[in-house]
Structures are given as C-alpha cells and as structure tokens.
Amino acid sequence: MLTNLPAAWNFLQANLDQFLELLGQHIALVGISVVLAIVVAVPCGILATRNERAKGYILGVGNVAQTIPTLAIIALVFPLIGIGFLPSLVGLFTYALLPILTNTITGLEDVDEGTIEAARGMGMTENEILRQIKLPLAVPVIFAGIRTSAVLNVGTAYLAFFIGGGGLGVWVISGINLFDMPQVIAGAVPGALLAITMDTVFALIERRLGGDATVTEDAVTG
Fold first, then answer.
1. CB 34: neighbour CB atoms within 10 A?
2. Which of 28, 90, 92, 143 ranks highest by number of CB atoms within 10 Å?
C-alpha cells in the first residue's frame, strides 16, 4: 500500500475538482442522515422513557433497523424512490437511528433519582424536570450516540455508490473493479481521515458537555 501512496496523491491532485465534489457529497450524506436521525430518535427516546409499552416497540424497530444491512435497505427503497442521493440518505438515516435512540433512553433513565426528587421538591413539573434537568444531564450520553452514528456512517456512506448516491465510494469501488489501487487509496484515506477528525472533534465536545452536565446537577442538588 505504501508504494501506491505517491500515485494516489498524484491521482488526487489530477482529479481535485471531482474529489471535492465527492467529498462534499459524502459529508452531506453523513451530516443530513445523522441530523434526521437525531430529529426522530431523541423524541422517540423520550417517549420510550415515559411508556414501557412504547419503549418495547421503539427499541424493537431500532434493533431491526440496525440489524438489516444498509445495502439491503438501499435495495429495498430503490424500487420505491429510484436511484441517487435520496435512497442513499434513507439507508444511512435508518442505520444511524439505533445508537442515538438507545443512548437517549440510557441517558434519561440514568439521571440520578435524588436529583429528580430534589427538583420535584422545588415544585418543578415533570415537563420542567425533563427540559431543565433530565435532558441537560443526559446530553453527554445522547451526544455519544450521535458521535457513534456519525463515525459509523462515514464508512457506510461508501455504499451509496451502488445506487448513484455519490460520495467517496465512487472512487473506492470503481477503483476496486478496475484494479486501480491509487484510485482506491485516494478515495479511502480521506474517508478514514474524515472519520478520525469527526471522532476527535465530537470527543472534545462530549467532554465539554459532560462538564456542563455536572454543573447542572450540582446546581439542583447543592
């Protein structure tokens, strides 16, 4: 592989415009799918903590979504909405749901009961406790799920190539088919660097959110 790095660099430089376009598509696939997953999974997680029956159904759906391979989901939605960016987005969105969903439930359920009782003693309603106590304290755990989904989807987004969804998979999978290792490396290495960068940035934000959550808990209990 190391012997192919100079050739991969030359390939990237010679096709820089296409690389930037594919990288933009890749980031858009990951970013939009994760944002949509947050919009769906966090409210569903909140509902699950308030209703045991709903929790069973919600986690069941989430587990099924995670179990089905993304490529299979893409194949299932292909006859309904065709090829391109949208069906790829649906597959990635489905795959991103479970980590955010499970972390939302875990984060909310793990809030210290003493803190909740102290909030009730201050006259706060259940909705106020949710907004002002539970969610702020659960944010670091929820964010860890978002971090997991985002990093996983960086790799999963390569599969968008198979239905014309774009992304760096265009270079990687085409390169594999053509036995063109410089092209494969030129598409794979930026994806790996993107995943590492996202994980590092999210880890720093997660650490900061953890400190803020501690301050919130201390303000209620102390």
1. 25
2. 92
